C-alpha cells in the first residue's frame, strides 16, 4: 500500500519536509517512490505537484493526516472531485 506522507529534511531544529509517495512498510527517511511536494512549517510555505498527487490518490494512495490537511488547504481534493465527475 502506498501513502502520501512527510519526509523530514533540513537541519536540527530547522526542519523542512518533503511530501512523498512511499510504501507503508518503509521508514520515515526510507526510499520514496516519488517526491510530490514540499512543506516548510517555519515559513508556512507549500509547493505541491498537484497532477502527481492526483495520480497517486486515483491509484488508491492514502494521505496521512498532516498531508491531508496541507492538500485540503491547497484545494487538491476539489480538483480530485472535479476530475472524477468528468469521467463518470
Automatic annotation (TrEMBL):
<dbReference type="InterPro" id="IPR020592">
    <property type="entry name" value="Ribosomal_bS16_CS"/>
</dbReference>
<dbReference type="InterPro" id="IPR000307">
    <property type="entry name" value="Ribosomal_bS16"/>
</dbReference>
<keyword id="KW-0150">Chloroplast</keyword>
<dbReference type="GO" id="GO:0003735">
    <property type="term" value="F:structural constituent of ribosome"/>
</dbReference>
<comment type="similarity">
    <text>Belongs to the bacterial ribosomal protein bS16 family.</text>
</comment>
<keyword id="KW-0689">Ribosomal protein</keyword>
<keyword id="KW-0687">Ribonucleoprotein</keyword>
<dbReference type="InterPro" id="IPR023803">
    <property type="entry name" value="Ribosomal_bS16_dom_sf"/>
</dbReference>
<protein>
    <recommendedName>
        <fullName>Small ribosomal subunit protein bS16c</fullName>
    </recommendedName>
</protein>
<dbReference type="GO" id="GO:0032543">
    <property type="term" value="P:mitochondrial translation"/>
</dbReference>
<keyword id="KW-0934">Plastid</keyword>
<dbReference type="Pfam" id="PF00886">
    <property type="entry name" value="Ribosomal_S16"/>
</dbReference>
<dbReference type="GO" id="GO:0009507">
    <property type="term" value="C:chloroplast"/>
</dbReference>
<dbReference type="GO" id="GO:0015935">
    <property type="term" value="C:small ribosomal subunit"/>
</dbReference>
<dbReference type="GO" id="GO:0005739">
    <property type="term" value="C:mitochondrion"/>
</dbReference>
Amino acid at each position: 500500500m502506498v501513502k502520501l506522507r512527510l519526509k523530514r529534511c533540513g537541519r536540527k531544529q530547522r526542519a523542512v519536509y518533503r511530501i512523498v509517495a512511499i510504501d507503508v512498510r518503509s521508514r520515515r527517511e526510507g526510499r520514496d517512490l516519488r517526491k510530490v511536494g514540499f512543506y516548510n512549517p517555519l515559513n508556512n510555505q507549500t509547493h505541491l505537484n498537484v497532477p502527481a498527487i492526483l495520480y497517486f490518490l486515483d491509484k488508491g494512495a492514502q494521505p496521512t493526516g498532516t498531508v491531508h490537511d496541507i492538500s485540503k488547504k491547497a484545494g487538491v481534493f476539489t480538483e480530485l472531485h472535479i476530475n472524477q465527475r468528468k469521467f463518470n
